[in-house]
Design brief:
Shape of chain B: globular
Strand order of the largest sheet of chain B: 4-3-5-6-7-13
Shape of chain A: globular
Oligomer: heterodimer
Structural class of chain A: mainly alpha
Helix content of chain A: over 70%
CATH class of the largest domain in chain B: Alpha Beta
Largest interface: A-B, 60 and 54 residues
CATH superfamily of the largest domain in chain B: Response regulator
Number of strands of chain B: 16
Strand order of the largest sheet of chain A: 1-2
Number of domains of chain B: 2
Chain lengths: 339, 473
């Protein structure tokens, strides 16, 4: 009898642990079931593709943000970077190619040439800004919240100065819509790109010394320094990767809407933090994993899609999203206490 | 590590400086003004012989002479509507070089040309008192929709009474007083038809979310979509996708960045700007001095509302060399920002004669800042600063009534019901709808009702019932 009870208790503990460890997957599956029940078009090809594109944009931002949070920092500049990266890249491309007589902007605001250079410059500029954030953080010893908040304002202002506030059309730029709209076997190219980046980051964090150093930097910085880890370098790296992720997200965004505007990405920095938190990354640093952030981005995008399909108005949506963030953070905190 | 840091610092600063300075900082090269014999651009033919002849006459005039010409329009046999049309299509004059340069540098001509123009559908003319009182389904505000007789659709089922028509509505801003009333009017119209089911979605000022909602409507294969596009460029591709999927899309107010949209219901931005310009000149003439210093508090740079209104305002002012634009300040449709801008202007310029706001946020913020600075009557001889306001919120019209705003040129959100009716006509194939459905111009509102260049204005009491926003306590 006693052995029966202990085996039941043991089984219960195993089940409870299984649920606790896979909570995000369970939520994702529940969402899918709810989606199918509530809307007949939920599993439709167009709808799924739309969810995957959004997941790619928010997921990329969240992967970058998660890395920054793993080293116990925060990056509030990613949203502004999504506008500044493409705007600065187009302005620079125009300047560079004007030397060879190539006009890349016609009719005031139609971009018509220089795609490859623009793409490279978007990623380069975003990476440099991320690295600059990191350098200021570690060298000036200014909290990243302040540094990136300041950078957010600087980038927003510069986006307006460079663009004059006008949107740029990419509709006449050959190849510009590919990243945002093309599919491979029905799956958006940008989602595949996101998965590749996500998996790469997961593998690097899990199986290389880089991962150990990043987790150590965020988990216990002093101990990491004593054990010979250059924590400053890894913080700068995290900000740099976050910049690249924001640049990639900006490319998908601009390609999807075939335009670049000064307000694009506005507020996305908070969404990226929310996704990272839902995914189990803590603000204390050194805890959580990128897989969680990837699943969390899917959870958020599916949730928004379902709420939109059922016609729930924005007020209720924001309440639900807020509750999800609080619930997820509480659940993760509870799990850690009981682990 | 230090070397790398330094190198990166330098590199990034170079990129930023190069971007801002080297790339021209978004400023456009001023266009050549040429040596015209007359002050105005060669006026493009408007198709209205009477007006075209008048533009030839006014071309060489400026200052007092231009004023006299404007004052004589009624005597030339023009109706109120024709007088307003005269000012809307008035060519830019080179008489005021600063304004002419500003007009060209900011590309206002492009905005003016691309903005839909024409006659109202079936020659509809709005008359005072018409319309329908409602309680806003979302805002619960007491409203009166002015144009419910325009593209009229009887209450009851539309099209096939046995079919349910699913309509998607996407806009931004349940939290915005103008926009929530926009949504109110659309829903009110849909609710009049029992076989119409609508799904109203708020993209919360995020164009990616706007696109996602459009895509979810496409996935749902809705019968039609009514949209409020915040800006043009990013809203084109989603509209194109919907139209390609066979779903009619109708925009109301601002336009989407595609020519392939099924139909567009546009408001009266050109009239707003032209009326504000008319009033400014008329008021200065009443005061006996056509010299004035103007501060423009403007909506976001690049928005249709700002560019079309400001452009038409400046065109009227361009005939008067004594007008000086002290500064243009932009905000992001945010009253606090507009307030800060107004405060800066009051600090920077000891003499301000006119505040021109391209939206009600801007004019209301200017008034507040002026009161705080104790500058309300700071003009020469203790005259009051002139406030020109656009957008007819209850708050703005009340300021006209109280004599604090000199004029309001109404622009109402309560036009989305027209859009819904146009869309339902298209979806049910009940009537052929034009690509552009023009909203009638609304007379400007002044405290006592004046006659401005032959045009009768209306009083705040006459227009108040049509205003938007919550009731004032």
């Amino acid at each position: 009898m006693a052995s029966d009870t202990s085996s039941i208790n043991g089984g219960y503990r195993v089940s409870a642990k299984l649920i606790k460890d896979n909570m995000l997957i369970i939520i994702l599956l529940l969402e899918l079931i709810i989606g199918v029940i509530l809307s007949p078009v939920f599993l439709g090809k167009t709808n799924i593709q739309s969810i995957l594109i959004n997941t790619a944009i928010f997921g990329l931002l969240a992967v970058g943000q998660s890395l920054v949070m793993l080293v116990k920092e925060i990056d509030l500049s990613v949203g502004a970077m999504m506008a500044f990266g493409p705007i600065a890249a187009i302005a620079l491309t125009e300047k560079i190619l004007s030397g060879s007589g190539t006009e890349i902007i016609v009719g005031g605001n139609y971009v018509v040439d220089g795609l490859l250079l623009i793409v490279i410059l978007v990623l380069l500029i975003s990476a440099l800004i991320g690295i600059l954030n990191g350098i200021i953080r570690v060298k000036a010893q200014v909290p990243s919240l302040i540094v990136t908040l300041g950078m957010m304002y600087v980038l927003s202002g510069m986006s307006y100065i460079l663009s004059g506030g006008y949107s740029l059309y990419l509709t006449n730029l050959e190849g510009a819509k590919s990243l945002g709209n093309n599919m491979i076997a029905g799956i958006p190219v940008n989602f595949i790109l996101f998965l590749v980046i996500g998996v790469l980051v997961i593998l690097v964090l899990k199986y290389t010394k880089v991962g150990h150093r990043i987790y150590s930097t965020g988990g216990n910085e002093k101990a990491a320094i004593y054990s010979g880890i250059n924590t400053n370098f890894w913080k700068i790296m995290a900000f740099g990767i976050s910049g690249v992720c924001a640049g990639a997200a900006a490319l998908i965004y601009s390609s999807r809407l075939q335009s670049v505007e000064t307000i694009q990405g506005s507020g996305y920095e908070l969404i990226s933090i929310a996704i990272a938190v839902i995914g189990g990354i803590t603000l204390e640093g050194g805890r959580g994993n990128i897989f969680g952030a990837i699943i969390a981005s899917a959870i958020l995008c599916i949730m928004l899609n379902i709420l939109s399909l059922v016609g729930l108005i924005a007020w209720y949506k924001t309440i639900i999203i807020g509750l999800i963030i609080i619930g997820a953070a509480s659940q993760h905190a509870f799990s850690r206490r009981t682990a | 590590m230090k070397r790398v840091s330094k190198l990166l610092y330098v590199l990034l600063i170079l990129v930023m400086v190069f971007s801002v300075v080297g790339c021209g900082g978004g400023e456009k090269e001023p266009a050549q003004t040429g040596d015209n014999q007359t002050n105005t651009e060669q006026p493009a033919a408007t198709g209205n012989e009477k007006l075209d002849a008048l533009y030839q006459e006014v071309a060489g005039l400026q200052g007092e002479e231009a004023l006299k010409f404007f004052e004589g329009l009624k005597d030339k046999g023009l109706s109120d509507a024709e007088i307003l049309q005269f000012f809307i299509d008035l060519p830019l004059s080179q008489a005021n070089e600063q304004i002419a340069k500003m007009y060209k540098d900011e590309g206002f001509e492009m905005y003016s040309k691309s903005y839909p123009k024409g006659e109202t559908y079936n020659g509809f003319q709005w008359s005072k008192g018409s319309g329908t009182k409602i309680t806003g389904p979302f805002s619960k505000n007491d409203l009166k929709l002015p144009f419910t007789d325009y593209v009229a659709l009887p209450e009851g089922p539309v099209g096939d009474a046995n079919k349910t028509y699913n309509i998607g509505v996407v806009f931004h801003g349940f939290s915005h007083p103008w926009l929530i009333n926009w949504a109110d009017a659309a829903k009110w119209e849909a609710d009049r038809h029992p076989n119409v089911k609508i799904n109203v979605q708020d993209a919360e000022f995020d164009n990616n979310k706007w696109a996602s909602i459009m895509d979810s409507f496409i996935a749902q294969k809705v019968d039609g979509i009514l949209v409020w596009p915040m800006v043009e460029a990013p809203t084109g591709p989603p509209v194109d996708r919907a139209v390609q999927a066979g779903i009619p899309v109708v925009s109301v107010d601002r336009t989407a960045g595609t020519q392939d949209i099924t139909s567009r219901i546009t408001g009266n931005f050109p009239a707003n700007g032209a009326q504000a310009g008319m009033y400014a000149i008329w008021k200065l003439a009443q005061e006996g001095d056509l010299n004035a210093k103007v501060v423009m508090l403007r909506k976001p740079l690049g928005s249709t509302a700002d560019a079309v209104r400001t452009g038409h305002f400046l065109k009227v002012l361009s005939y008067f060399p004594g007008i000086e634009i002290l500064k243009s300040y932009h905000d992001t449709d945010n009253r606090e920002e507009a307030f800060t801008n107004a405060q800066s202007a009051l600090q920077a310029y000891p003499e301000i004669d006119i505040f021109f706001g391209t939206g009600d946020h801007e004019a209301l913020a200017a008034l507040e800042a002026t009161k705080m600075a104790n500058r309300l009557e700071s003009r020469k001889d203790g005259k009051k600063i002139i406030f020109l306001s656009i957008d007819d919120s209850k708050e703005a019209i009340t300021q006209v009534k109280d004599g604090l705003f000199e004029v309001n040129t109404p622009y109402t959100p309560l036009i989305s019901d027209i859009g819904m009716r146009v869309l339902l006509n298209i979806v049910t194939k009940s009537a052929e709808m034009p690509k552009d459905v023009i909203t009638p111009n609304i007379p400007m509102v002044t405290q006592k009702g004046d006659v401005i260049f032959g045009m009768q204005t209306q009083t705040p009491d006459q227009w108040y019932e049509y205003t938007f926003g919550p009731a004032l306590n």
